[in-house]
Amino acid sequence: MRKKIVAGNWKMNNNLTETRTLLSELKTKLGTTPQAKVIVAPTFTNLQSAIEELSSSEIIVAAQNMHQAKNGAYTGEISANMLKSIGIETVILGHSERRAYFGETDELLAEKVNAALEHQMTIIFCFGEELKDRKNSNHFAVVAGQLTKGLFHIKDADWDNIVLAYEPVWAIGTGETASPEQAQEMHEFIRETIADTYGQAIADKVSILYGGSVKPGNAEEIFAKPDVDGGLIGGASLDAESFTTITNAI
Ligand code: PEP
């Protein structure tokens, strides 16, 4: 059985007080036995308080990004070692906003993947095509390329630390969601692509999340698809009620 996961990417939202309030609401609403493995990714400055706030909870705290180097003259950056030292074991890499606004390439992401794996971190690896790729029917090739260049250098055993998040860029923060059929079609393709390189057993084991305007009203039909193992949630993860409803839709 693959792990069912619902992860909230809070992006650059919530100061310290707001972070504590949202986490406290989430703990109450989700209860002690959430339907899925739940992950939240607050901003860097609030990671430590989130760890403290959630110390008696099953909810996992993730970072939204990290630098690939061990340490050094990289002003403003955060290393895997720094994250680990405050108890962060999970990191989101390759989010489309990092790719689009901060120039993160597949090659750079391959380095970040290596740095995270060296520190035995779990990686939520994001990828997905832009609207122009889908319009040109190039979306499968784009996704295969992102996976091959950013991730397919890892060893078989490393897959235990990988969660995939397929996020079509045209559906992120736009209110436009991939249909459950479009999501299933791509997730199935992703699993086949992994199977071609790493074998069916590994492909069957990896959780593939869908991300892109998942809301309480559409989560259930998307999560019902056989190759969709949960979601990476942006906007709707900032509201405890919505995020809980989405988690329970698993
Ligand atoms: C995201 O940024 O990962 C995301 C899926 O955002 P939203 O849910 O707001 O589309």
Task: Report on the architecture of this protein.
- By secondary structure, the protein is of the alpha/beta class.
- It has 11 helices and 8 strands.
- Strands 1-2-3-4-5-6-7-8 form an 8-stranded parallel beta barrel, surrounded by 5 helices.
- Strand 1 (5-9), helix 1 and strand 2 (37-41) form a beta-alpha-beta unit.
- It starts with a strand and ends with a helix.
- The model has no long low-confidence stretch (mean pLDDT 96).
- The protein binds phosphoenolpyruvate.
- Phosphoenolpyruvate is lined by residues 9, 167, 172-173, 211-214, 232-236.
Brief digest:
The protein is of the alpha/beta class and 250 residues long. The site of phosphoenolpyruvate has 13 residues, from strand 8.
| Overall pLDDT score | 96
Biggest beta sheet summary:
8 strands, parallel, barrel
Q: How does the overall form come out from the CA principal axes?
A: globular
Output the radius of gyration: 17 Å
